[in-house]
Here is the input.
Amino acid sequence: MCKVFFTYRVIIVLTIWLVATGDAAAKKDTLLLSRMYGYAETIDTANVAGSHTFAYQRFFIKTDRRNALLMGVPTMWGVAHSGNRAFAGEAYERVNFYGIGHYDTERLLGVNTIPHRRNAMPTLLKYLTPEIYNSTILKDFLLSPFHRKNRRFYRYRVTYDSNGTAIVSFRPKVDNTQLVAGQAVVDFHSGRIITTELNGEYDMINFKLTLEMGDEGITTLLPVRCQLDTHFSLLGNRLIANYLCYYGLTTDVESTNTTIEGPEAADSFMKLAALRPEPLGLEEETVINEYLENERQHWLDTKDDTLPAPKKKHSLARTIFWDVLGDHLLNRVKQRFGPNDQGYLRINPILNPLYLGYSNRKGITYKFDVRSSYNFTPNRDISLRIKAGYSFKQRQLFLYVPLRFNYNKRRHAFFAIDLDYGRHIYNSEISNEINPITRDTLEIQGLRLDYFRDTYVRIYNNYDISSRFSFNVGFTLHNRMALHAKAFKQLGLRTQYRSFAPRAEVQYRPQGWKGPILTLDYERGIKGVLSSNTEYERWEADGSYILNMSRMQALSMRLGAGIYSKRAKRERFLDFTNFRDNNMPGGWNDDWSGEFELLRSEWYNSSLYYVRANTTYESPLLIISRLPLLGHFIEMERLYFGAVMAKEMKPYIELGYGLTTRLVSLGAFVGNKNGHFERVGVRFGFELFRKW
Here is the structure.
């Protein structure tokens, strides 16, 4: 009996000891993680603005397998089209800080072996400037395991060393592309991360990111050495890309950021050799030496006047169709111009199927985008953009061309001219007049006689008198032509309506640019000016706010109303600024927020008034992203709600769900009008390489 009692006492004591030991270990782990989460808050970052440093960067790209499809990947034309399989490059840059997370870089010296000195896979450069203490490691993606609000997504394991450090290992609770795995060496007493390794896969890039952080002050929040090892696979193509970057260097050099060829290329590599924090690898050194030898031989062949230049076989078809047209049709074109690279031109690929989209109402659509700008001074620039699209189902060509001259960027002061062409607008008054007319003698069955093609020009000037108030004044010119002018003439109806309308807009931002934006807009159409034959008076109020929350979550809200307080029957078009069929969406976190996807186009132009509300909630880990296998590829999920009150719509309600993957964005929507089911529709758009 005594032996049994003694055994029970031992078991109880051991159990209590184990529980106490486990509780102590758990408290110790919790204390370390808490210090790690809060470490950035202990560092003074007030004096970083205005400082600068220097950085060294190099890369090595190797193609294990490649085929013709690689030429369709943005920025990869030179790699796919070259006869070489390995490429290398180096650069030395000046980094100017305006605050933590706010900086720019100035290339001082750089050279690479890619044909025409093109940059390949620039999307990888953002991995070289991680901010591991932020909610997201890389600007707007990859949830950091070192941020307190993200701990719900990770599992941690802590092991302790005798030198006052600990190894914190972490892995995601769910398999999702926005999460990473790896480990970090952390100082136990302060929570400072000394080194870390992050492994993940995002946007078809499998990566391992190895960081060595600074050892004192503000440098502890930034890496001093960053090594990135990646591989990319797509449709039989496989590439390996390695980057190495050193920050916090002090040596200044004279800027020679120009195209370098011939013997000067060797001089540039020699200059960079003196700046390298660590030697080149064997493969990198081999690629560079072969390149320099080829450049030297080519330069000698072209400069030697005593010997005939070697004859090279050139195919005219290859040169024109592949080197010129192929590069510009399949590849994104980016070009700097001007004496100090003040100008910038960007042309998206012209013949790229990835710019196709689909919706039930518009069918298949294709978009094209060109952007250009020129900086006169840091406070003054001019920009031009050409956005074009075509709806194959509606046979509509859309064109939007905004030209903006910023003459005082500090005050958001600019003069702008906007051209919009191709939008079809509905006129219910004319539709009612056509219906009673006998059409038997006219071959107009099936024609959209109540639709007009609208071309408008808006000229205006904007000025911010403070961070809270903006004033915008100008005028709008509309020219609306009947889609079927011949049929209109046979019916004795007017085929063209013009309007000239001065307008004024006041914008109020209670919390500055980061808070809600309230806008009041007034427009008055005047007859007789510039051949105007339409008069009207329109008022609109609009409020919008994007609330960015933690963990990449956001709530986009929009509330607005409008009314025509004056109208002329038959001669007026109900055309609101903030409630219209938007053919060229943009400006929100995604193209579908703040819009109605299923609402028929004629309802936008059939009521003298409207009241509308739209809300979109987005999160990287919402519903499907938590599922095994499929959830790994989900980058963002969204829930949509929209409602509008107008004539014959009391109300119209639309609900939707959407998700974004590396390949496509998908959305499903359902509409309800006046309490009755209206329709169901889907929409998709290609996302592949959009972030490249």
User: Anything to note?
Assistant: The CA atoms of residues 438 and 491 lie 9 Å apart. The radius of gyration is 31 Å.
